[in-house]
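Sequence of Lipid II isoglutaminyl synthase (glutamine-hydrolyzing) subunit GatD (Williamsia serinedens).
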Amino acid sequence: MADTSTLRIGLVLGDVMGTYGDGGNALVLRQRALMRGIDAEIVQITLDDPVPDSLDVYTLGGAEDYAQRLATRHLLRYPGLQRAAERGAPVLAICAAIQVLGHWYETSAGERVEGISMLDLTTSPQGKRSIGELVAEPILDGLTDTLTGFENHRGGTVLGPGSKPLSRVSAGDGNKAGDRFDGAVTGSVIGTYLHGPALARNPQLADHLLSQAVGSQLPPLDLPEIDRLRRERIAAGRR
Ligand code: GLN
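Predicted 3D structure, token representation.
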């Protein structure tokens, strides 16, 4: 944590990227930090702001194709997110954002857009939209709890050797229909197709990001109502 008194959580381009309440990921991070007595604030970065490289953790949400292109242009113009990841700041990128963080993505209109190459992946339109509940088992070290969320994307993502999948899919499509993996991880950068918001549904993933941000392993919080919600969602996803 750069500033020892307050954890600074970047909500990156929530004005154009934030479908399905993905901005809630920043709220979950703040709340789980506050519950441990760690002071935390959300820093909103919009299309009017350069992207700072000094924050402790960053989140980016999903978007429709046009909004996604605006965000890509902004992140290329102001490469603060890239610099932050280079020094190991945790980054969570959801859906359109996993595509933006790759080398390029092709929109459903067939146009290829250069990405910001923080993840080793490319995305092309699939024959059919992947939509519905997604359930997956984590592969990333330090994560043991089943991941649950909701996916809605036309793009199908293929990883190169520089990124590893986040999880193995047991229900739904994930990165690309038929591949049975979801997400991508390179260093401290995690991308996934899980909406939900992902961190509301997957508190262990939230604590993984927070622990990286504060530089020490945070103990779990005992929140039985969240466990119950998770059980319901996972059961619904597997039906
Ligand atoms: N526009 C992208 C796609 O359809 C991402 C969609 C999203 O973020 N929900 O693949």
